[in-house]
Specification:
Radius of gyration: 18 Å
Helix content: 25-40%
Number of strands: 9
Largest sheet: 7 strands, mixed
Distance between the termini: 45 Å
Structural class: alpha/beta
Strand order of the largest sheet: 4-3-5-6-7-8-9
Order of helices and strands: EEHEHEHEHHEHEHEHHE
């Protein structure tokens, strides 16, 4: 078996580790590691406080948030997180998002982080607009909040790059007889960086040169 849309296969119980596949399973990781995302965020804007708003019902985001808390402990930064309220019928209430962002902004974080959370991605316009109105830059694990909303920077893997790497592994398994469990589970070697220059100007946060030379720059409205 070969997967390409499982972001945390160890946490989800598919395999004991990423150095090799397990029991005929291998795959490609679709998300940039949190360590890499935070390193790029620091290269743009050093931070000691990171804010997160999240859907508490999403299992993938629950893993990401747990890992982010562990990383905050190792790297000694403050993590402040607010869950989206859940109605009595068990559905999240995205209408609360502007107030959640407002409350987080009052804690003076340097970034608002949007993880791999479908609810937040579906409401990217609301979340990023609320953050921008409060002078809070948005860092995203997905490109949508930056490419089609008001997020500042995304550190992500392009789907086509993940697809090409997965296809190369499929070719090795099907045509060269490589056993899936002998292949390491990794993502593409380098993350993609996307910067919204219109937002950078509005926030008065010019990207440093070392990121300008690596990133895809978009300028909505120009």
């Amino acid at each position: 078996s070969l997967f390409m849309m499982v972001p945390y296969p160890v946490d989800m119980g598919l395999m004991p580790g990423l150095a090799y596949g397990a029991d005929g399973i291998t795959g490609t990781l679709p998300l940039v590691s949190l360590e890499q995302q935070m390193a790029v965020a620091r290269a743009y804007r050093p931070f000691d406080t990171l804010a997160v708003v999240h859907n508490p019902l999403d299992p993938v985001m629950a893993i990401a948030l747990r890992r982010l808390r562990e990383l905050a402990g190792r790297q000694a930064f403050n993590l402040v997180a607010e869950p989206v309220p859940v109605a009595p019928d068990g559905t999240p209430q995205p209408e609360a998002l502007p107030d959640l962002v407002d409350g987080l902004a009052r804690l003076y974080p340097q970034w608002l982080y949007l993880g791999p959370d479908p609810l937040l991605d579906d409401h990217r316009d609301v979340v990023t607009a609320a953050a921008a109105d409060r002078g809070l830059p948005v860092l995203s694990a997905l490109d949508g909040p930056v490419r089609s909303a008001r997020g500042l920077m995304a550190v992500y893997h392009r789907p086509e790059t993940v697809g090409r790497l997965t296809a190369a592994r499929a070719e090795a398994i099907l045509w060269r007889g490589v056993r899936p469990e002998s292949l390491p589970v990794t993502g593409p070697a380098r993350p993609s960086i996307l910067i919204n220059m219109a937002q950078a100007r509005r926030l008065d946060l010019a990207p440093p040169l070392n990121l300008l030379t690596r990133a895809e720059l978009i300028d909505p409205g120009q």
